[in-house]
Amino acid sequence: MQMSLSISQAALIALWIAIVEARALGYSTLMLRFSPLMTGLIVGIVMHDIPTAMTITAAIQLIYMGLIAPGGAMPSEPAVATAIAVPVAILGGLTPEAAIAIAVPVGLLGSYLYSLRFFINTFIIRLTDKYADELNEKGLTLSIIVLPILVSLVLFFPLMFIALYKGTPLIADLVKTLTVGKAFHVLNVVGGGLPALGIALTLTVIGKRKFLVFFLLAYFMAVILKPLNVNTVTYAILGGIIAYLYVLVTHSQVEGQEI
To answer: Where are the transmembrane segments (predicted)?
Structure first.
C-alpha cells in the first residue's frame, strides 16, 4: 500500500485545486469547485486508485448536496476537503465515514482561505475601477481575469502542496494508531451521520412537498432493486422516464383546463 504522496502527486493535486479555486478554466470550474466528485476522480487518477477514491468521494458528496454558496462563499470548501480527505483515507485505509469526518474540518479551513482570496481581490477591484474610468481594455482584462487567477494560484498551490506532501502521511499515521480506540469509533459514527444532513438540505432546497413522493419512490426502488445490482445508469434512465411521464401528465392536465 502507498504510504505517502510523492512530490509530483502532491503537486498535481495542489495544482488542480488552485486552478479550480481560481476559476481558471472559466465558469465551468465553479461547478468543479462545488462538486467533490471531479476532485475525487483527479485524486484517484493521480494516486492510481480510482475505485477507492470514488467510493470515498461519493460519501463526501452527500454532505455537500444541499449546500448553497451565497456570493460564491461556501461554509466549507468541497474541493479542498476532498483533496485532503481522500488521500488520507487511501493512505490510512479509512472507511468513507471516517473520511467524511476528516473532510468537514478541512473544508472549513479551506473556506477561510477562500475568504482571504476575496479580501485580497478587494485591492484588485480598485485597479478595475481605475481602468474602467480610463476605458483601458487591456487593463480591465488584467484586473478582472489575470490578477485574480494569479492570486488564487499563489495562495492555494503552496499551502495545498505542503498540506498534501507533509500533512496527509502524518494524519494517516495518526488515524492508524486510533483504529482500535474510541476516538476512531466516534469518527465513524459522526461521519456516518453527516450524509443525512446533506440529504436533508437537498430536500429543503427542493422545497415542494408534492415532489417528496419522487424521493420516496427512488429510495424504495433502490432498496427493492439492490439484490439485482442495478447500476446508476439504469436508475438514471428510469428517473428520466418517470420525469417525462410526470411532465406529460401535468402538461395534459394544463391543456385540458385551458380548453
So the answer is: 40-64, 100-120, 140-165, 185-206, 211-228, 234-254
